[in-house]
Structure prediction request, 480 residues.
Amino acid sequence: MLEVNIWFSTPYRFGKRIKHGVFGPFFASEEKGENVGHANFVLSVDERSKIYERLAANPCGLQVTHSLEIIPEIRDGETRRYYAPKTVKSLQIDHSFWPVSVPPNSSILKDILHLMHLGKGSKGVAPVLGTHAFDMQREDRGTKTSKIERRDSQYAIDKAALVKEQQENIALAFEISNLRTQLDNKLAWEGTLKEVIVKKSALKTEQEKLFKTYPLDVAELKKQITQTSNKLNENKKKIGFLDKKLSYSTSLSTPDSETIKESSSGKEQLLNLEKEQQQLKLLLNELKKKLVQVQREYADKKNAVQKELNHVHDTITCLQKWIQGSVEKVKNRDEQTLKLLEEHYQQQEEMTKRKETVFNRTYETIGLHPDHSINLPTSESGLNFYINEEAVTAAMQKETGRNYSLVRNNCVSSAKRCLLAGIEHLKDDLQENGVPESFFKMKAVETCKGFRTWVKQLEKELIKLNSSVEISHCPPQPMV
Prediction:
């Protein structure tokens, strides 16, 4: 269904409202809270429409509200077929053409002069698309916004059901969040556990290597220390022997040449041995220091590895405990279960929001109702002649690229262009039924009053076309 809504201008002069298409807007005073008039339309499509899935997934810049509709559905009874109400998903697509800012008087004057062929028209103002709910409040320019609230016994029942459903959605969202956290934690902990187990194995290998190499290193150092000490003792004895020998040689008053030669050789040997002793003492000292260092490093490494092993053991125990806790909380649920829960939540949340839209629309109205609301059939009506909603939405998307002009391209112009696109496929049928060519043309200045007349005629012509089809398909009356 396509609902066209029209508000006439609201200025009053001499206690009478001026609804004239031109003079009404002309005399409207913003300071007094008076409006120039407005027109919009609301296109409703449900799951049966070809464009439903596309617009539900991507609104394409249109003002789309998700809601629910109740449609009649044929069902088979025990003895006969009957109609039963069926709730289906629907979209409410609002088209309300507004300027992003109030057009300056200079641009209005330019457009008027352009109509009189006295100049070039203005560029207009960038447009913005509004909603029907916004229009009702915007057109209600009194001191206090009109608000109608319906509070009957059914309201309390519907309110309680809606609140219950919202709370169930919150609980489901909380459950999904917890499950996601537990699954993510479990996965992360299992990954960390694998890394820690690998680290434990590496530490064990390092510890075993330490236990294996340390005794060999210590034994080798001790062996070198023993050998060096033995060499020092051996050299010490040689030095003592040479000292005695040299002392004896020097005590001789007239040593022979052989004795002198031996004495000279002994001194040289003694000097070499003393140098070697100094080097051996230094080496022995270094070996002892190295032994102490190796023992200290071994103790430090041994303690560090053992400390790290203890930490790794505690970490493994802790991770295993956490993983076990997650397993108990997850309760055999996995990523596939989570995916199904998330899909279910999205469906439930979407349905709840649709119900909330219907609830608010049913029990509360804010703002000024249109002076006229005219319903036109779309493909979902089942009639042979209807407004093509696919062509209408395509035209609606194009309107976002047109600048707003109060005179040459206003809200009425925009709405009428969209409706003309929606009846393009009916042009031949309408003309055959007597509708003139001018009906399919845009006027230089479109007004709310003229638009009301045009839409009412369109409504009438569609009724005539559909009625003629029904009459032609009626069976012949039996002869009396």
In short: The two ends are 42 Å apart (CA to CA). The beta strands are 2-7, 12-13, 16-17, 38-46, 63-76, 81-99, 127-130, 147-149, 364-366, 372-376. The chain has two domains: 2-146+367-472, 173-335. Residues 177 and 284 are 70 Å apart (CA to CA).
